[in-house]
Design a protein that fits this description.
Length: 741
């Protein structure tokens, strides 16, 4: 294998665009605003491993095919984000159609083209992490700090079947700590350390990475620690329960074996606390430990890839004083294990066939210990999920053909069998919970879903300056364990279920069926011949989702006992049950760049921008939840010697088309201005930035309901007041120092 800087690879590919393979050509169409931002903040991108070319240098590539509407974020771009965020999911906001559902400071949930949470499947070095919390406080991207990411690739719902199964929105593939090998004999040592400070919330942290390697062996470590207090909104209000502390780490050993590469990695996480302004509970402990083994090899017939992994998570929810108070522990233990095997077989000079099989298994226990002295929360342990099991076996076959230099097609089929079951449950006591628990236990809870997916993609490269791509895919997602098996309609129990941040309560539905998304997308991209002066890309899409897993107002007797007007109220928190409905989504993403000047006096300057629009609704007229309003980012970037700077303006429209069934809150439009300035001197780099320069006061469109700052007092104690969104952070002065060695 050959090791080259990513920037050099991209430049070489773009310079020879007429001859490049289609799977590599897409690198030149990576959203410019992502690569430009990375270049402004971290010009020295990390080394990545590049697979050798096919023996005759022609035909299709052994690498995974990247559709033209996919997006990539480099390690340099991810590390640069450390200046303003410790949340790796926030990187998704820089790709076309990307946004995040607000949650904890390092645990937001990604959404792409209106599809969020479980509909976006995230892998970390090919590992999958199932929800290990009834509020999804520990999503997969919380297990890596931004500075740990070496690259990130995002595939949308119209991607080929080889990009994975059991999702309907997008697939995010994250790589951490790639191997670096010495090109000659002897040992090399590389690495770096960085530290940051952000004034809003008094956030600070450190990250470090190091690699020791010779010609065929590489040992790498990467990790980071971050801490923050509660942040302040633009009007000076402290947004309670936004504090956090987190630590992530990974150690890997990689070995070259002839034309193959074998790696084994161990890693983990420790989060002692993380506040959630839009949840009734906080995270008061989260520990994980994983082991992951991977192999990639080139053979006469093609390429073989295999991964096997295991992961254990121990999670506890409670209250962080003084923003929330009380004693109500909620515990979760989860185990993930699985493997993937994939072969890419060269059939002819123009044809590749990809086949693969994967197994994924999740085991979940969710229990709430009794509260001493409480008649309502005792004397027994509340068993929410007992011996929950979700296993999936997936198999796919895919054919890629390069008909001529202009035309490429990909066709694929996939089958995923999802098997789910859970054991008996119980409430805190028989008087309040006994009847419901007995009814749940009496049911046959085993469910098996046999899901079939397919994809078709046609790419046409009319000339070296244009590309057109039409894609269609059917993607299927089975319910998660909470959607099917959360069982109690007690008010408190329902309010503990739900990763939506809306303040509502949820109960499961054992009769849910998988949702099936039928997505068609089109991408057109144009650029100048040298790909230096300008680029533009437009990607419209449409999805019709059969049996979309949404929610209805709960009409069960327990729900109506919680709130008599539950079926009709429009100005209060409500109680919901997961339910299937047909739905549709459509939208368009536009992004591009324009070089403005290149002089000895002022250096190089350019403009970049993007525009995103999505609309989603059920066929019964109910708007889908958490649809990001129309938004755009415009930026002016400049480099001059070791200096670089960026002036960025983010525009977000008003959110008025909200989910009626959830009583979702509306938000107003706003604009934010961010400044960035950096200087590189040999191995030392200093960055400075001001986020929200004019201290704009605004509400997060996907931030949900603020359940902490606004409280009502009654005979039962205090309770959250309906009608208040979560405000975004006000102005912050940020700085970051990094040193490479």
């Amino acid at each position: 294998m050959q090791s080259l800087p990513f920037g050099s690879v991209r430049a070489a590919l773009c310079a020879t665009s007429a001859l490049v393979r289609p799977s590599l050509a897409v690198l030149c169409f990576t959203p410019f605003f992502v690569t430009a931002a990375a270049a402004q903040t971290a010009p020295d991108l990390p080394t990545v491993v590049v697979q050798p070319s096919l023996p005759d240098g022609g035909g299709a590539s052994f690498g995974a095919f990247a559709p033209a509407n996919s997006a990539a974020i480099s390690g340099g771009g991810a590390a640069a984000a450390e200046l303003w965020s410790s949340d790796s999911a926030s990187l998704i906001t820089d790709i076309p159609g990307g946004a995040t559902w607000g949650a904890g400071g390092v645990s937001s949930l990604p959404t792409v083209n209106g599809m969020g949470a479980d509909r976006v499947q995230v892998t970390i070095n090919s590992m999958l992490f199932a929800p290990a919390c009834p509020n999804q406080m520990n999503p997969p991207l919380s297990f890596v700090n931004p500075a740990m990411i070496s690259n990130m690739r995002v595939y949308t719902a119209s991607s080929p079947v080889s990009a994975g199964g059991d999702y309907t929105g997008a697939r995010v593939e994250v790589a951490v700590a790639p191997p670096i090998f010495a090109s000659n004999g002897g040992f090399i040592t590389t690495g770096g350390v960085s530290g940051f400070f952000r004034s809003n919330g008094s956030s600070y942290g450190v990250n470090a990475n190091t690699t020791v390697s010779n010609l065929d062996t590489s040992v790498a470590f990467t990790g980071g620690w971050a801490r923050s207090g509660d942040y302040t909104a633009g009007d000076g209000t402290k947004i309670k329960s936004t504090l956090f502390q987190t630590q992530n780490y990974a150690l890997s050993v990689s070995k070259k074996v002839q034309d193959g590469l074998f790696s084994i990695e161990v890693g983990g996480q420790a989060i002692p606390y993380q506040g959630y302004p839009n949840q009734y509970m906080d995270m008061v402990d989260n520990h994980s430990l994983y082991i992951n083994a991977r192999y990639e090899g080139l053979f006469d017939w093609g390429k073989f890839e295999a991964t096997a992994f295991g992961n254990r998570i121990r999670h506890t929810m409670g209250f962080i004083e003084p923003d929330k108070s009380g004693d109500m522990p909620m515990d979760t233990q989860s185990m993930d294990a699985g493997y993937t095997v994939k072969g890419t077989i060269r059939i002819s000079a123009q044809d590749l066939v990809r086949i693969g099989n994967e197994l994924y298994y999740n085991h979940l226990d969710d229990w709430w210990p009794p509260v001493s002295g409480s008649a309502m929360m005792g004397p027994d342990t509340f068993v929410n999920i007992n011996n929950g099991q979700r296993g999936r076996v997936g198999t796919f076959a895919e054919w890629e053909r390069r008909w001529d230099p202009a035309w490429t097609t990909i066709f694929g089929v996939r089958n995923d069998v999802v098997m789910m079951n859970t054991g008996d449950v119980q409430g805190y006591n028989a008087m309040m919970y006994g009847a419901e628990a007995a009814a749940f236990n009496a049911q046959d809870r085993a469910r098996t879903d046999v899901n079939f997916d397919g994809s078709a993609l046609v790419r046409y490269e009319a000339d070296p300056s244009s590309l057109y791509e039409l894609g269609f895919a059917r993607k299927t997602r089975s319910p998660n364990l909470y959607e099917r098996y959360a069982w109690s309609t007690n008010a408190m129990a329902m309010q503990m279920i739900g990763w939506f941040g809306d303040g509502n309560g949820y109960v499961g539905n054992i009769n849910l069926v998988p949702e099936k998304a039928n997505t068609v997308s089109f991408t057109a991209a144009w650029h100048d011949a040298a790909r230096k002066a300008w680029e533009i890309r437009v990607s419209p899409y449409y999805s019709y989702v059969e049996d979309y897993i949404d929610a209805d107002r709960c009409a069960l007797s327990g729900c109506l006992a919680n709130l008599a007007s539950n079926l009709t109220t429009t100005d209060n928190f409500v109680y919901l049950q997961f339910a299937n409905h047909d739905a549709w989504l459509y939208g368009v993403n536009l992004d591009g760049k324009l070089a403005l000047w290149d002089t000895d006096t002022f250096g190089q300057g350019g403009f970049r921008g993007n525009l995103n629009f999505v609309r989603g609704q059920r066929t019964d007229g109910i708007n889908l939840y958490h649809m990001m309003p129309v938004n755009a980012t415009l930026a002016l970037d400049q480099t001059f010697g070791g200096w670089n700077s960026s002036l960025e303006v983010q525009f977000v429209g008003s959110k008025t088309l909200v989910s009626q069934v959830r009583n979702e809150l509306v938000t107003s439009s706003y604009a934010l201005v961010n400044l960035r300035l950096g200087y590189q001197w040999e191995a030392v780099r200093l960055d400075f930035g001001i986020d929200n320069l004019f201290n704009q006061n605004y509400d997060l469109p996907l931030g949900g309901a603020n359940l902490v700052n606004y409280q009502a007092v009654s005979m039962m104690g205090t309770s959250a007041v309906y009608g208040y969104p979560v405000a975004g952070p006000g102005r912050s002065f940020n700085t970051r120092l990094s040193v490479k060695f």
